[in-house]
């Protein structure tokens, strides 16, 4: 790791203000940031520890939803009684991610901001526009099996790795943040993660220094909640394809996808196709896909995963 | 056991030499071509921890992971470094009652925390039931992953007891012991020797599930 200084923030406002200075970064669970710092992919010169700001609570909102503090650990969020009952797809997605040890540290905010698992992003000897803007993309003509087929660009085809974020996308969560000037705002999850375009190193809508304070869920949807993750081994691996779904009693359902998109993937067309069955949903969701020879299999895998979910729901 | 010749003995023997390390650090700081080292050496952070019931105070470079603080500074070498990237679980310790990967957390972030390592669970004279069960069931071969496996296993049984669900839990509201629960919950602990079936057997015994 490159040298850095360390401080504990005393308040949310102070944290955001300090973070706006050059080289400063927040540290929450540290499970992604420290991994990348050891590889010198991330090289902050100052770390602001935001673990002691009281952002670790889960509270009901006046609108009948749920406000999840940014520092709530993945383990606690998955195990929360209300989440289990009313937002089970979120519990399921969290439990499908990482390991028990990692979930004990990983936070809601940090999970949303975790960076891609593209092998070239991790290998500092390789070109990567996301790690080093303008250096090229090693993956497009290289090992792309795990990478995205939707929302990609000629500059970057990295997949978004989070399971949790797929469930939050499905549930129409809002990301609440406080800025360096103390101003507060809420960003719909659909607008939170950015597509790579020409600037794959810019991954989300946060401004410099902006601190996520909570994630807010609207009131529960009801229905049957499922999260199905397909990966190279049964546990402790990132998704090749994942599908989060809520099947409504009225035949109206919604779907979000992981492993295939440059960001957690959801389309109106796929949701609208729900009554027509799994094949129609797959066709709608995959419209515009730009697979490589190595990851084209993800299209069929997505269709099959959806078919399996429909069968499970029918049973 | 030829204790004086063991690796642990050697490491502890060299502990006395550890006082010299900061001096070495300063020498490096002056080395050319390492910008930033000087400033960084000046900024050591004081950290107080309770490790296996004992209060310790350390002066640490903020880059020191909890794993390195335990191994290199406190000479508790039971906790192992496998990958140093959160991928293997060899570094698993219990902090404030929860198992975590000590390689992916900074020691400075744990001011005031209670840490339990394999050395704190039990001793050769007074083994923790999980340690004894690993021996009974041959839950290891080379033993490198074992301290992490045992710390993890102890915490796993507490998690099941506390009703914390896992990916293997069918009904999120009914968490109960099963072999598939153990396999899923222990998936963050990789064993290069593939002692997995015996590890599951050891955990099953401690859970009191092998009598049924
Ligand atoms: C071996 C391994 C396997 C994994 N498998 C999976 C998996 O299968 N599925 C999955 O989804 N994830 C997986 N993960 C990733 C894991 O979920 C993330 O590392 C974790 O969620 C990150 O959370 P954190 O709190 O540790 O973030 P940190 O590492 O502390 O922070 C990550 C980033 O977010 C920023 N940040 C943190 N909190 C805030 C905030 N409140 N406001 C603004 N910025 C903030 C930090 O500055 C940093 O840039 C895996 C990780 C490892 C190491
Ligand atoms: S796909 Fe994106 S992250 Fe991977 S090498 Fe190309 S630019 Fe880098
Ligand atoms: S050494 Fe920490 S997980 Fe491998
Ligand atoms: S016993 Fe050798 S790695 Fe597990």
UniProtKB/TrEMBL annotation, chain A:
InterPro entries: CO_DH_flav_C (IPR005107), CO_DH_flav_C_dom_sf (IPR036683), Diverse_Substr_Oxidored (IPR051312), FAD-bd_PCMH (IPR016166), FAD-bd_PCMH-like_sf (IPR036318), FAD-bd_PCMH_sub1 (IPR016167), FAD-bd_PCMH_sub2 (IPR016169), Mopterin_DH_FAD-bd (IPR002346)
FAD-binding PCMH-type domain mapped to chain residues: 1-222
Species annotation: Sphingobium chlorophenolicum
Molecular function GO labels: FAD binding; oxidoreductase activity
Record's keyword annotation contains Flavoprotein: yes
PANTHER family: ALDEHYDE OXIDOREDUCTASE FAD-BINDING SUBUNIT PAOB, XANTHINE DEHYDROGENASE SUBUNIT C-RELATED
Keywords assigned: FAD, Flavoprotein
Protein name: Xanthine dehydrogenase
Signal peptide start and end residues: none
TrEMBL record, chain B:
Database matches in PROSITE patterns: 2FE2S_FER_1 (PS00197), 2FE2S_FER_2 (PS51085), TAT (PS51318)
Domain 2Fe-2S ferredoxin-type stretches: 45-121
The entry's keywords: 2Fe-2S, Iron, Iron-sulfur, Metal-binding, Oxidoreductase
Gene Ontology MF term list: 2 iron, 2 sulfur cluster binding; metal ion binding; oxidoreductase activity, acting on the aldehyde or oxo group of donors
GO terms under cellular component: periplasmic space
Protein name: Aldehyde oxidoreductase
């Amino acid at each position: 790791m490159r040298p850095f200084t360390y401080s504990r923030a005393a308040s949310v406002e102070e944290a955001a203000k300090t973070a706006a200075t050059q080289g400063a970064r927040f540290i929450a669970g540290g499970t992604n940031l420290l991994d990348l710092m050891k590889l010198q992919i991330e090289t902050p010169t100052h770390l602001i520890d935001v673990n002691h700001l009281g952002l670790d609570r889960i509270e009901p909102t006046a609108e009948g939803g749920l406000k999840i503090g940014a520092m709530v650990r993945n383990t606690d969020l998955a195990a929360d009684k209300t989440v289990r009952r009313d937002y089970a797809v979120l519990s399921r997605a969290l439990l499908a991610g990482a390991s028990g040890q990692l979930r004990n540290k990983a936070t809601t905010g940090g999970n949303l901001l975790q960076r891609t698992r593209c092998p070239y992003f991790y290998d500092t000897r390789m070109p990567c526009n996301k790690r080093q803007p303008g250096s090229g993309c090693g993956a497009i003509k290289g090992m792309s099996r795990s990478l995205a087929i939707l929302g990609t660009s000629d500059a970057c085809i990295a997949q978004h790795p989070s399971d949790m974020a797929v469930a939050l996308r499905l549930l129409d969560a809002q990301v609440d943040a406080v800025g360096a000037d103390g101003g507060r705002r809420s960003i719909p999850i659909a607008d939170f993660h950015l597509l790579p375009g020409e600037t794959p190193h810019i991954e989300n809508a946060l401004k410099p220094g902006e601190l996520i304070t909570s994630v807010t869920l609207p009131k529960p949807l009801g229905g049957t909640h499922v999260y199905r993750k397909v990966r190279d081994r049964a546990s402790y691996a990132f998704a090749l394809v994942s599908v989060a779904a809520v099947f409504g009693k009225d035949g109206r359902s919604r779907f979000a996808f992981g492993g295939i998109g440059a960001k957690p993937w959801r389309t109106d067309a796929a949701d609208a196709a729900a009554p027509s069955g799994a094949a129609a949903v797959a066709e709608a969701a995959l419209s515009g896909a730009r697979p490589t020879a190595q990851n084209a299999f993800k299209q069929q895998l997505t269709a099959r995963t959806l078919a399996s979910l429909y069968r499970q729901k029918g049973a | 056991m030829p204790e004086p010749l063991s690796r642990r003995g050697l490491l502890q023997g060299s502990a006395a030499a550890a006082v010299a390390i900061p001096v070495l650090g300063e020498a490096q700081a002056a080395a050319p071509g390492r910008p930033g080292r000087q400033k960084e050496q000046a900024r050591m952070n004081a950290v107080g921890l309770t490790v296996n019931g004992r209060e310790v105070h350390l002066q640490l470079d903020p880059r020191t992971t909890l794993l390195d603080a335990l191994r290199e500074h406190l000479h508790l070498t039971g906790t192992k470094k496998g990958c140093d990237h959160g991928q293997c679980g060899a570094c698993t310790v219990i902090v404030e009652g929860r198992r975590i990967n000590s390689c992916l957390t900074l020691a400075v972030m744990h001011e005031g925390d209670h840490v339990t390592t394999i050395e704190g669970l039990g001793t050769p004279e007074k083994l923790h039931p999980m340690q004894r069960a690993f021996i009974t069931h041959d839950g290891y071969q080379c033993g490198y992953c074992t301290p992490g496996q045992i710390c993890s296993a102890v915490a796993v049984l507490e998690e099941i007891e506390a009703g914390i669900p896992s990916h293997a839990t069918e009904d999120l509201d009914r968490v109960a012991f099963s072999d598939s629960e153990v396999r899923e919950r222990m998936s963050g602990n990789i064993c290069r020797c593939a002692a997995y079936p015996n590890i599951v057997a050891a955990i099953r015994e401690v859970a009191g599930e092998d009598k049924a």
